[in-house]
Amino acid sequence: MRFSIAAAATLLSVVSVQAVDHLVKVGANSSLIFDPTNITAVAGDTISFQFQGKNHSVTQSTFASPCVKMTTPTAGVDSGFMPVASGATQLPQWTITVSNATAPLWFFCAQTAPVSHCGSGMVFAVNAPPAKTFAQFQAAAKATAGNSTAATPSASASGSSGSGAAASGVSASTPAASSTTAKSGALRLGGSAAGVLTVAALFVGLL
Ligand SMILES: *[C@@H]1O[C@H](CO)[C@@H](O)[C@H](O)[C@H]1NC(C)=O
Ligand SMILES: *[C@@H]1O[C@H](CO)[C@@H](O)[C@H](O)[C@H]1NC(C)=O
Ligand SMILES: *[C@@H]1O[C@H](CO)[C@@H](O)[C@H](O)[C@H]1NC(C)=O
Ligand SMILES: *[C@@H]1O[C@H](CO)[C@@H](O)[C@H](O)[C@H]1NC(C)=O
Ligand SMILES: [Cu+2]
Hints:
Blueprint lengths: L1 H17 L2 E6 L7 E2 L2 E2 L6 E6 L3 E2 L2 E3 L20 E2 L6 E8 L7 E4 L14 E4 L7 H10 L43 E2 L9 E8 L2
The structure holds 2-acetamido-2-deoxy-beta-D-glucopyranose (NAG) (4 copies) and copper (II) ion.
């Protein structure tokens, strides 16, 4: 027992050393994009979404329905709308932790005024597998606005809730978005053994 505890502690320390934070700029340069558009991440990695302008959100969806907030097997995580005044010196930041690198994660911006940001292709993916690429996901998002002639993924799209593992145990936090003072609202729900995301929100000063 003592050995396995020591081994586990060693493993944990290795994992924490290797964990990476991925910075994703939301709406950089007034564009309706996530930058980068898609990433690969391992369990333990964090993704920090930094809202750089306008009034965007990071809302979890599914491959099958890119522009609809996920409801099954659990409610998707959602940053909520994060309005940023032009010339703001502090940018809201929202962070999630990836717990299962095998489960792809799909996100969109839920803003629809004055146009659908998702329909304009403002989507983001984590660990998109070869059979469900980011390009397919984005094409399907644009198709919701009649913005693309690309076929909506069909056969491959049915897997999003079948195994249910892609996003079980995901939790949401709705941080206050308008304050200019530092704020944090971390929340972690246990959920099932499948992919648990932890989320936290804070405001970071621009230096
Ligand atoms: C941000 O967008 C949401 C959804 O369109 C809207 O309800 C909210 O009033 C907006 N906030 C600001 C400050 O513009
Ligand atoms: C279609 O996409 C373009 C950018 O690619 C965007 O400007 C336009 O608003 C989108 N149309 C809709 C209805 O979202
Ligand atoms: C996914 O992201 C990588 C960079 O992380 C980029 O090279 C690639 O073009 C992206 N895929 C698409 C379809 O945009
Ligand atoms: C991770 O996700 C995959 C694919 O959804 C799933 O099969 C697997 O059970 C998950 N692993 C854990 C530890 O939850
Ligand atoms: Cu947006």
